[in-house]
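Table S2 (text version). Query chain:
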Amino acid sequence: MLSPRSMRSTIQLVSLILLFSSLFLAACGGPSGSQGSTQPITLKLLSSVAGDQEAPIKDAIKRFQQANPNVTIKDIVGGDAYQTILNAGLAAKNAPDILLLNGGENALAKNKMIDDGDLVDLTSQPWANRLTDSVKQAVTYRDGKLYRMPWNENVIGVLYNKKIFSDNGLTIPQTWAEFLQLCQKLKAKGITPLGYGGKDVWPNFPLPYAMVASAVTASDPNFDKHLYAGSASFSKSPWLQTLKDIMSMKQQGFFNAAPVGTDWPASAQLLASGKVAMLVQGDWAVPYVKEQGSAIDLGMFPLPYVTAGQQIHITANVNRTFAVYAKSKHTDVALKFLQFFSQNENIGPALKTNGGLPTFKDTQVSLDPAVTDMLKVLPEAVPFAEAHWPAGVSAAMMQDVQGMFAGTSTPETVVADMDKQFTANKDK
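Corresponding structure-token output:
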């Protein structure tokens, strides 16, 4: 039996042990890390967008902080210094916790981040099962895992002047033969069928990408794997015939005069002013075309590079994505923010200012009527042809297609240069 004094001493000792244990656990963030902790937590989010496009992200951060009072997310708008900030952070092993990675950025740079273990595996996150099939395919890495949460995607199709179609009794073509007949009818009526702005390099990709969506990507979903394995090539694929068909359209006079002397804004103005009937571009072009001619009744349909009875496929590209830095001290909170951002109240406003179509099956958002025409074929979408290409291939293709229109290259030159770039860079 302990004496009263011994009992008091024992109780005091136990109390001290419990006190120090609780302080130790608090200092270590508790047994479950920062999740659920009341300790102040600060995260950094590196963004590559600004202005109206950034506003919905800031609003989502504000709501997240209100729901999690101990969390502060500092939004860093990188602008032109985005890549410099990211590279410096990765080199110092102290990159921002949440990264906004755009689909148009160098694929090899993103691949290196994954290979170096810089990005958290997001495959098992709750939002992953809500992604559309084409989007999930586009962002799945070669190891079969997801490292980015995509929240908008762009599609390529044929923008067209509905008034020109209705005035001339024209209907939406369902095959390539019907599309060529449509172009012939327009030309016979003195209307230039297609606008083309190939003066800059980048506008030379929408047309071939829209065509190979059905001819290559959908017909052989493993085409890229065959390229990496060395059992396929661009030169011996439908890519060659696709490019020959583009040249045939040029030779038949289906495009505006001087397509390589016309820049992208001017091609949009041609459509808006009624000087051309159609323009093969991405949905990102819709707002710009309407700004040039607010009265235009604009529609969009999938380019039918198929024969009768074949399924038309469109091509879609993931644009905005979020990733979590693997060396962050608060990955659990960063993951919680991604799940929060995937909710409709955040995705809806973000799509309105950033453009594009939703990547989640359950997202409800009001889109431009011209873009909604493409929603019914979105389930048949395949990724942009370049989705899994190494660096250099897409650039070579765009430059050589530009050369085709300028008369300085041929379809054979294009595919040969694409094969050359793929072989040179596929193992880097």
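Notes on Table S2: The first helix runs from residue 4 to 27. The domain at 41-152+319-366 is CATH 3.40.190.10 (D-Maltodextrin-Binding Protein; domain 2).
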